[in-house]
Amino acid sequence: MRDGRTMAGGVGARAGHIAGIDGLRALAVLAVVVFHLDARWLPGGFVGVDVFFVISGFVVAHSVAGVRARSFGAYCAGFYRRRFLRILPALYVYVLVVALAGVLLLPTAEVTRFVELTGAAAVFGLSNVALLWKAGDYFAAASDYNSFTQTWSLGVEEHYYLLFPAVSWWLMRRPQGGRARWWGIGAVGLACAVSLGAAWWFTQHWRAFAFFLLPARLWELGIGMLLRWLGERVVVRGGAWWSGVALAALLLSFGVTREDAFPWPGALLPCVATVVLLAVLWRGGGGWLARVLGVGVLRWVGAISYSLYLWHWGVVVLMRWTVGLDTLALKALAVGLMLALGGASYRWVEVPLRRDRRLMGLETPAFFAGFAVVAVVVAAACVGLLYAKPWIGLAASNDAAVWNPAFVPAAGACAVARGTVDFGSGWRVTYRPACAAAGARRLFVVGDSHAGAYALLLHEVAARGMPVDLYTAGGCRVIDVDDAVLPPGCAAFRARALAEVRAAARSGDVVFLPGLYTPLYRTLWDGAALRDAGEARIAESEARLRAVLGRGVTVIVEAPKPVMPTALFRCADWFNRGSGYCRPGWHVPRAEAEARRRRPLAALVAIRRDLPGVRLWDPLPVLCGARFCDGYRDGKPIYYDAHHLSAAGNRLLVPAFLGVLGR
């Protein structure tokens, strides 16, 4: 639609609204909400975001179709004004409120360490990059418990908006049907094809990249844009039939799309179905489809869909960390909170600021400078809250001296210098005591995250004059007490670590090999039961140990420690202790703990029998009482989660470990 009016910045009026699109947005956001409430209800509901991408590609192109501007600069200024007012105010409010709530309620844990930084990155449209860097996978636990994970899609759209003005300006200035215009449309089509190829390749080789970044998502926004530029003179016939087929395909994709085949080919069906539905609504008269999608409740949900998309995820994550989402009543409460917060954000943030004449009337430099200042303030607030968390947070696990196994105590009579360097897929940490005597015995520690979780204990060893070298990589034990699949890079890590130990160790030195050997009750995050462990790979493990024993060192192997049914840091506070996840508790009969570790203990005993130079150190008698193994002792947590020891647990074992070193 064109008229002679002029908006701020010399930009003319935009094209009109298309009935039914809000209803289509509602279907997309509701699919995402249902998936996040309980993925079993709608296993492919996450493709609602892909529907949003196609709609955005179309609607943004439609919104500028009737625009006139004096210059490209004026066109960009007008375009970005509208995008800023549409997206950023609601995002800023969400980030501030949820960052504060997270600092108050989320425990201090590895998985929460980068939550506030993700929020700060979201302010600048970079959360998708941050999530790729730190979490690695949208479907991973770190993403499921990060209250800003959903902002990855805003990052993708905002990166698209960096490209869109130049492409759309060039197309709008070319005559309809002209060769130059067709060349431009062909270039967009080629870019979509390349992006589709990138989605195919990266889904197989680097799925997180395919999920989070624009190169593998550009085609989804691009086909929406192409529909708008190619469909101006098209009339869709048989709209009722096409509507039925496309709507059925879209709803089917919500149910059958698999996470392991996404975004290629999983995003293809919902995106193509969305293009067809948009074409019918725009160029096919709408028909029954427009009437169905125009139902009042769908129009309202579609209108608030952006704010609902933001707030639904904050509600899900904060409830996961606190009261839980395991009952139907809690899910109903979550839906009520989502709708209330989304509606409030739309009513009191989105609409007033989007229509504020004073904002639209600001001079271009003042407008964008104002948004830049607000963005910096919001991001700085996120970082400030992160650093203030130990003082203002309500979670018990903020007390690092009690909970954090890597807590560094105040310097005592013997100062210890600690250094950390990358070491393949893990880390090498050195503890160098100032009081070490010349030629002092050294302690070498190699293992999985349980080796790293002995950081405080190792510091105490070093403080008594014994230099320590720690090699640690998650999931990478030296001794294979079962047939678990090794994480990527593990074989190379332990080969390199043991080679360094062999080269540096002298007669009289000690090699300590801790690890997670006891089968866990369930996964840390979703509570799912774990499979039974397979047979131990004893021969391969003994071969690795013989190479170390040949240096005349003493090898101490940690016996399997007891494990808890529940991660203590998730259940340490009045506001999370009553969740369904915490129900199994942390009070395990000692007989049950002994039975649980019987099989891996037998494997380690067999290794000790075959290799006389190996000693077995058993922490269980210290960690457990006569009848029970408890997660707490004297009000302090022995465990940090379900199997790693806390700082208090480390202190509990120091005397026993010093005793075994002194034998």
Please report which band the strand proportion falls in: under 5%, 5-15%, 15-25%, 25-35%, 35-45% or over 45%: 5-15%
Round the mean pLDDT to the nearest integer and report it.
91
Low-confidence stretches: 1-14
- What is the strand tally? 13
End-to-end gap? 88 Å
Share of helical residues: 40-55%
What does this structure look like?
By secondary structure, the chain is α/β, with parallel strands linked by helices. 55% of the residues lie in helices and 8% in strands. It is built from 27 helices and 13 strands. A seven-stranded mixed beta sheet has the order 3-4-6-5-7-8-10, with helices on both faces. It has a two-stranded antiparallel sheet with strand order 1-2. α23 links the parallel β7 and β8. It is elongated. The N terminus is likely disordered.
Please give the structural blueprint.
Elements: E1 6-7, E2 11-12, H1 21-37, H2 48-63, H3 72-105, H4 115-123, H5 127-134, H6 141-144, H7 152-172, H8 179-205, H9 207-212, H10 218-230, H11 239-256, H12 268-283, H13 287-293, H14 296-303, H15 305-321, H16 328-354, H17 357-361, H18 364-392, H19 400-403, E3 416-423, E4 426-433, E5 443-447, H20 449-452, H21 455-462, E6 468-472, H22 490-504, E7 510-513, H23 538-549, E8 554-558, E9 587-589, H24 590-596, H25 598-610, E10 614-617, H26 620-623, E11 628-630, E12 632-633, E13 636-637, H27 647-661
Parallel strand pairs: 5-6, 5-7, 7-8, 8-10
Antiparallel strand pairs: 1-2, 3-4, 4-6, 9-11, 12-13
